[in-house]
Queue: 4 jobs
Job 1
Amino acid sequence: MSRRLFLQTAGGAAWATSALGSYAFAFEPGFRLQVTPYHVDPPGWPADLQLRAVVIADIHACEPFMPAARIRSIAELANALQPDIVFLLGDYSGGHNFVTGPVMPDQWGEALSVLKAPLGAYAVLGNHDWMHGPLPNMPADDAAGVRNALAAAHIKVLENDAVRLVKDGHPFWVAGLGDQVAGPAGRVGGVDDLPGALAKITDGAPAIMLAHEPFVFKRMPRRVALTLSGHTHGGQVNIPFVQDRVSRVFKDLVYGHIIEDQRHLIISAGLGTSHAPIRFMRPPELVEITVGSAPLGAGS
């Protein structure tokens, strides 16, 4: 290879590496946002009950990647999808220290307060909400700040609890599980109680379970029509050797619509980042779900 060709090749490789790095570290996590639609028609769901839900997961509020203004614009996009109900799946606190500053709970809470849906908004907490404050280098408060921010935004937190709702004359349940990883004082071990949450469901109406981590799906009974989770960020970096490792860690529960033994799980890629502000081929997403019979002309 001639010196000129070598320098051109090396220069091209350096440019490509720089461009790829800029995309993964800046553009995809900071600017891309997609709406990912799903249609689920689980066994036992009433044929004439159609529920439209928007799922918001893993916000990981921080400057400059997920500031309050961006969170508000995401909430406004959720409203534009005109859901019947909104589900928030935990990890509102920042997930790494590669930041210019925190976004405090009252700031991201105010941004989320614009959410509007006829049946309301319901939330669970995530491991980062328990393990530390607004950023990993800030002290934990046993998720008190997160709970207060959600309450101020009129978002109901469900921790090993369930609420019965009615749409078009049909009842259904929304249950929420305590975090499966972290608990008071940031201890590892979790505060989840699946039997306790299921015990709050007191009739035969179908149920949707909110669980920050998808691990519990392996134990989820058929009684639950649909489980919704985040936590994995869809692997965050979607290249084969990374995804193979992530699949092993999360026991093949990483991303998308998973069906096992007639049980349905949807795992969101979420919005923010943890460990490092990088995403590659797994852009931030809002999840839009139609539960029940598909509207006329819609695909599955």
Job 2
Amino acid sequence: MATAADFSVKPSEIDPIDVSRKELYVEDTWQEAFRQLREHAPIQWVPESEFGPYWSVSKHKQIQHIEALPKIFSSAWDKGGIAISGSPELLEKYNMREPMFIAMDPPQHTGQRRTVAPSFGPSEVADMKAEVQQRTAELLDTLPVGETFDWVQKVSIELTTGMLAKLFDFPWEERHKLTEWSDFGGDVELIKDEGNIELRLAKMQEMGAAFAALWQERLANPGKDLISVMLQSEAMKDMSPEEFIGNLILLIVGGNDTTRNSMSGYAYGMSQFPEERAKLEADPSLIPNAVQEIIRWQTPLAHMRRTVEENTDMFGPLMKKGDKVVLWYISANRDEEVFDDPDAIKVDRPNARRHLSFGYGIHRCVGARVAELQLHTLLEEMGKRRLRVNVVGEPTRVPACFVHGYKRLPVQLSHY
């Protein structure tokens, strides 16, 4: 039995709080629930939820430690994977086989990640800069100033979907399908209803068929896109259809929902903290740090999940083999022991990079640099045009505990 007293927590002092309830996110009222958990029950057993029982982990230090121990806390897809919604029972009942490298343990994870990682390396990302800059500039120049429009649709979705289409060399005129597939692939609420499960499976099969056709094209005429990279690698060239679909879901949801909601978080967050916005407008050198702070504050994926591989009491309470463990990044990024005044955006926050929005350890987001590049470029191009986003109505938020983001955000642009 694994133990490590340094990371132990006191027994839960409060009744279980189920922070997987979608109401907390659609109403944006999750902050107090997690504050209570961090203070009184950093690791708490939640015996009942719509996703089944789970351990809720809400502190930065314990989450990092769990992420660093993949032999004890598994990400494997066949044990439940990386979202609270996954379960071996659902897998068996609906044949929901979607293996992806983020939902694998070493050594299989290692080979597949090494295949994809070079496409997101420093030199590759640097090569993307000019095109990202051009597409961002062109889009911003089409936006109306002084008229209300939906920032999510016009800016966040358009920029991130365009980047995905380029990474996959996906048909440009059909790029809207990537957004639709991403929305279905990342929606944990769909597993609560049999009809929605079937609909999601159908959408994932549709996606798989479209990419299978591209795979055949690239076999004959390979390029530098992600599909060509996968089919030319020893670790991924012989993937099963289910594994192919699983990795597509990972790359599409990871590359779309996360960056999309950070861009929307920038628009919404800067309107909530106008003094910080003024600071950023006055000093563009703050942009790199502001990018990290916005990603911290927004936390576009609220959680990741692990499954206990062996009984452990390293944190105090006994976690048993097979237990579901939910790591609440959204709470770790508001941990008062790590971040001063954590609910506020501070564009010059000295330790903004300590956020866990990209995860930690072997599963840290492989596309983090691309996400940062896109957000950095958006802020930079907004600054060049002296454009300011003004939120003019309440956002419509994603009603779920996994993707933490916005469905609609009414805004107007002005000059400063």
Job 3
Amino acid sequence: MSIDSLLAAAKLPETTVRLCLRSDLQSEWETLDRELSAHQAAGETLAPSDADMELARRIKALEAEMTESTVEVRFRALTRKPWLKLVADNAPRKDRPADQIMGFNTDSMFEALVRESMVSPELDGGQLDAFLDVLTSKQFDLLADAAWNLNRKDADGPVFSQAASRLMPGSDEK
């Protein structure tokens, strides 16, 4: 392929993070799942008890409710120039060692990176502010890690499946 063809076909890497915005449901699900696992471990028969089946029904109902309360956030990597602008706009503070090590303002950069890299859902400024405000610190960190990894981790080259190569030896020679 020519360089022009490769450039025309270039696509920026993307990744998706799924967040359930109803953390109360997650906690309830974990409790019920532990209870069901404990019942099954203590059971003397392979047939599920009525109590086990009721726990399973409650878990499945919670899973459906959690799915309805889940948002899928898609990120796309920035190209070099927007990345450099983002870093310049979030310059490191001289009195903060962490900023000096990272090369940017660690208090502002990650939120700016999330905002700049997020491509869906499409939110206006107020909606994006409200969305970020309802997240836990852990949820925000999941978003920030995804955006950071897209923009700063090593780019993958061609991917080769060892499992597929074992099944189809020599197919990568073409």
Job 4
Amino acid sequence: MHRKTFIQTLALAGALGTLGLAHAQAQVEVPFYYPVAVGGAIAKTIDGFAADFMKANPNIKLTPIYAGTYQETIVKALTAHKSGKPPATSVLLSTDMFTLIDEDAIVPIDQFVKTADDQAWLKGFYPAFMANSQTGGKTWGVPFQRSTVVMYYNKDLFKQAGLDPNRAPQTWKELSDAAQKLTRKDASGKVVQYGIQIPSTGFGYWMLQTLTTPNGVLLANDTGTKVTLDHPKVIEALDYWVNLARQGVHPSGVVEWGTTPKDFIEQKAAIIVTTTGNLTNLKANAKFDFGVGQIAGNVRKGSPTGGGNFYIFKKSTPAQQQAAFEFIKWVTQPERAAQWSMDTGYVAVSPAAYETPTLKKYGQEFPPALVARDQLPVSVAEFSTHDNQRVTKLLNDAVQAALNGSKTSAQALKDAQREADRLLRSYQ
């Protein structure tokens, strides 16, 4: 080879090598905390989304980190934030919004919304889900795995009890009457099948909201600075729950969140009240025909919303924040939101997702998938305050104290109100 050509070739190779290096360096690392304790179906779906996103965006390296329960994930995310090495983004409870703002851990989403397309995307979510995503005129979270609470009921057991298998109980009275008819005992008088089961661990406050909402009372103001836990209508709602257990149609004491779907599948409970996020699990594992109904009403209908939002962390780099925003926008597009809803049972977060051919077809073939969506117009924001973990724990403890009989509903809620007022005083 001619010496000049050889030098040119070397120079070209060097330049290409530098370009390759620049490309490798330009790849933005996006650590992404996701609240699931173990692998399994949901982790597979998230891994699939990450792989597809990176294929479309080779300059971004998105790494899902499975961080345990929601409670464990926020602790890990805030610890990482304090150490200066936060995730770029994380899915955390929509109700963690005030806590994340108070910790100065997140940035508003609005600062990334630049184009008309971005604006249309942000306006495209269900208003009920934005109630826990916006405050003070800013958007802090983007709805992702969102839910409402629904009632699952065993149609076969309804038939056996002489109840209409195609109609869920519509009112508190209908619910109590149905639960009486659906409760079965063995020869020794031991209950082998409860009429109704409402879990009280983990999310007791949320299950209480499925009774306070239909009773026409809100537990907190929308700025998260005041609570009304000892309102007579809240006490009445908790008493209704306690009385189901007293009447023997609901298990006594505290009921585990995690075992409730299992008890339904094993036909130990004829009706359960839990998240729509359990729908795909029940569809796959129940060996009987079941129905899904909206929450039974009293003075009105309605449920709290629930579930997780995406947040972008303040101490990640501007490049990481921008890349996280790109992923959040990508994964909440109608087709993907539709897929996520079918894979998990969560509510697709935008009306546009329900207009996609895939979710339209799924809704026609499996109408229970549309119940939670149809409940959104009467849904309210999930209970959320400043110092949310501690205030929520007070309410969870009050619910459990009333259910296990150590306090009356009125006493438990008055005690919780007094302590919550003390915790929230500095935010008022």
